[in-house]
């Protein structure tokens, strides 16, 4: 395991920010930390990044204990915080060169490294622009480049997409996919849930400092199967289809037909096939019949429903 948290708790005075958090991330995986504001995501990420000490438990990055061996951990880890500090009078190149210096990259290697990093995050055209003149999306990409100066194998990205417009989010997502392609292990947090579904191999849902669900995106969605929605699209015969669906004992919560039917189906796969047979045999021109695309937002709301009252 590349990242591991074992029975981690963190208290700020009376406040329990994390309680007995356990999770691990395999080499080369993208793990999404999902939770509402204040859930404890940043706290967990700060502990892994050696910037905050836990109250209890142990955390490991690439096998190194973050509390006992922080220097080794920092060598293999790149951390992107959820805010971007203000840097007056520094260009993008100067900014990255400064951090490359902090990581003791030899001066002669810095120009090529910085050029590569700017290219990776699509900022080559802004090399000489002042950092505080860049858009939020560009600053986020520069911050990501900064976390990569020492070529870490593990990346911890705290809400990298927050405050970005849709285009900037897509750009960022593409870069993160590229980093995954390079074999990096990535822990990323967000409360923009559907976005993580596409990007992440596994997710952990965190609420009030506790991990309430963790695993492959599909497994977590399946736990929610009883809520599964289905979609039916037809070319015609909507009234006939409505009648058949209404009479089917496994169908509930049928909506009015607006471009498609959506309904809940509580039968087996066999019974699902049976319903399709019946629709077609009755003359309904079915163009689509299947499960509604998993909406991570719904899954998240269902899982966290009622937690903490
Ligand atoms: N330095 C601190 N002192 C006291 N309480 C803190 C401190 N930092 C965080 N907290 C509290 O700990 C809890 C967890 O905060 P944390 O920032 O880890 O959550 P988060 O999931 O990252 O939230 P967000 O999405 O808003 O960043 C919150 O209740 C927060 O108010």
From TrEMBL:
Example of a GO MF term: ATP binding
ABC transporter domain segment(s): 3-233
Family membership noted in the UniProt record: Belongs to the ABC transporter superfamily.
UniProt name for this protein: ABC-2 type transport system ATP-binding protein
Keyword line: ATP-binding, Nucleotide-binding, Transport
PANTHER family reported for this sequence: ABC TRANSPORTER, ABC TRANSPORTER, ATP-BINDING PROTEIN
Matching SUPFAM superfamilies: P-loop containing nucleoside triphosphate hydrolases
């Amino acid at each position: 395991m590349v990242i591991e948290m074992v029975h981690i708790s963190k208290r700020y005075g009376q406040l329990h920010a994390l309680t007995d958090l356990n999770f691990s991330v395999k080499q080369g995986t993208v793990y999404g930390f999902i939770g509402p504001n204040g859930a404890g995501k940043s706290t967990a990420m700060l502990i892994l990044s050696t910037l905050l000490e836990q109250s209890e438990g142990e955390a490991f990055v690439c096998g190194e204990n973050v509390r006992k061996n922080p220097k080794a951990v920092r060598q293999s880890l790149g951390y992107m915080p959820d805010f971007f500090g203000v840097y007056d009078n520094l260009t993008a190149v100067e900014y990255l060169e400064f951090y490359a210096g902090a990581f003791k990259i030899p001066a002669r290697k810095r120009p090529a490294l910085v050029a590569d990093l700017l290219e990776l995050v699509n900022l080559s055209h802004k090399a000489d622009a002042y950092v505080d003149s860049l858009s939020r999306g560009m600053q986020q990409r520069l911050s990501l480049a900064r976390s990569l100066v020492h070529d870490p194998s593990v990346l911890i990205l705290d809400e990298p997409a927050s405050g970005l417009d849709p285009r900037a989010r897509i750009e960022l997502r593409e870069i993160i996919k590229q980093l995954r392609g390079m074999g990096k292990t990535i822990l990323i947090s967000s409360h923009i849930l559907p976005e993580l579904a596409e990007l992440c191999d596994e997710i952990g849902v965190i609420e009030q400092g506790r991990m309430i669900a963790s695993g492959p995106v599909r497994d977590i969605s399946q736990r929610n199967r009883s809520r599964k929605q289905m979609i039916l699209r037809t070319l015609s015969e909507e009234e006939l289809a409505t009648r058949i669906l209404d009479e089917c004992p496994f169908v509930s919560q049928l909506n009015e037909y607006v471009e498609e039917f959506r309904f809940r189906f509580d039968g087996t796969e066999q019974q699902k096939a049976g319903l399709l047979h019946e629709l077609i045999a009755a003359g309904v021109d079915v163009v689509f019949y299947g499960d509604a695309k998993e909406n991570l937002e719904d899954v998240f709301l269902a899982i966290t429903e009622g937690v903490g009252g």
